[in-house]
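[recover] target loaded
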């Protein structure tokens, strides 16, 4: 007996950052965040619950996972099995259209696709908000990849909520890849260390809700200047909180700062371009379609930029195939 489903989800980049957990065991976010789901960056995940399997198998980009990465996937499978009172083991095969080439995090799109595929495979009917909560239990940012467009995740919330669809505002995000190495510290460990040791963590928690409100208002009102200012501050305060940790967490590389300098000089010449960074060295530059060529051209001339990936607001996560045999 095999119950199988395949789902696709898109990565998202936070415009107002989530950093820190209010409840580590439930994986609830300590601050509100708001993200943009991106069309270019997809994960596809197939889940097959199979009576012939003796244990769960988890494959990512063709490699068999073990230890904690495998366990995080199994925890999602266990929730699904429990809800359906099912004992079958599963094979999970996930591929990212972007991660290996770009060094970008794929947990958000990967866990959103996993939640959709695993529940559909066994016929567990969940609404998008329940799918979001399931994805969030593995990776809080994954809660936001259930929806396309602009998506919010409130502090302490179990599920994200859509703010506006992809057609609300045709922004362009250019991702300047400056380093393809795997990140040195994972986001969960980095968040824990920041909370436990950084004297700036409290300041981050105090500042984040107002930054989120500014980002949200700017997204609703389609005000790129207001969005850009709040987004950059959200990024910089998040990274400042990590710099204060012991040992410190420093994701930017020299070329990261080169891209930030370039964004500032583009702005001085009248081009609306704003930066954001996550738990890694790549810089995402937000601009409008009419300035895209100029921004992309300048980025590609910069020493240290390996490649630039273009993304625009993307759609909801979705199941693309399911069957039982
Ligand atoms: O959900 P996680 O554990 O991958 O954490 C993501 C944290 C950031 O990407 C840095 C910010 C965010 O809101 O996505």
């Amino acid at each position: 007996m095999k119950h199988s489903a395949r789902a696709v989800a898109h990565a998202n980049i936070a415009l107002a950052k989530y950093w820190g957990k209010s409840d580590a065991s439930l994986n609830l976010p300590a601050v509100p965040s708001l993200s943009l789901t991106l069309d270019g960056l997809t994960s596809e995940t197939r889940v097959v619950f199979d009576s012939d399997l003796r244990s769960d198998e988890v494959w990512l980009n063709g490699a068999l996972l073990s230890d904690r990465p495998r366990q995080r996937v199994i925890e999602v499978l266990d929730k699904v099995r429990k809800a359906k009172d099912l004992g079958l083991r599963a094979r999970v095969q996930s591929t990212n259209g972007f991660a290996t080439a770009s060094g970008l995090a794929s947990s958000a799109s990967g866990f959103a696709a996993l939640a959709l595929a695993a529940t559909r495979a066994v016929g567990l009917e969940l609404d998008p908000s329940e799918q979001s909560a399931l994805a969030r239990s593995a990776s809080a940012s994954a809660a936001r990849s259930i929806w396309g467009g602009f998506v919010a995740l409130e502090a302490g919330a179990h599920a994200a909520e859509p703010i506006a669809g992809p057609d609300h505002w045709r922004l362009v995000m250019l991702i300047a890849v400056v380093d393809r190495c795997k990140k040195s510290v994972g986001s969960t460990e980095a968040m824990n260390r920041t909370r436990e040791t950084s004297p700036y963590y409290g300041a981050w928690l105090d500042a984040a809700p107002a930054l989120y409100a500014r980002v949200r208002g700017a997204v609703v009102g389609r005000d790129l200047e207001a969005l850009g200012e709040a987004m950059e501050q959200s990024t910089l305060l998040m990274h400042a909180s990590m710099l204060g940790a012991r040992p410190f967490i420093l994701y930017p590389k020299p070329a990261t700062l080169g891209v930030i300098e370039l964004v500032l000089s583009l702005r001085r010449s009248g081009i609306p371009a704003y930066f954001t960074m996550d738990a890694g060295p790549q810089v995402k530059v937000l601009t409008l379609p009419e300035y895209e060529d100029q921004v992309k051209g300048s980025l590609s001339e910069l020493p240290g930029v390996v490649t630039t990936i273009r993304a625009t607001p993307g759609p909801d996560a979705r199941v693309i195939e399911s069957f039982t045999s």
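[recover] notes: The chain has nine helices and 14 strands.
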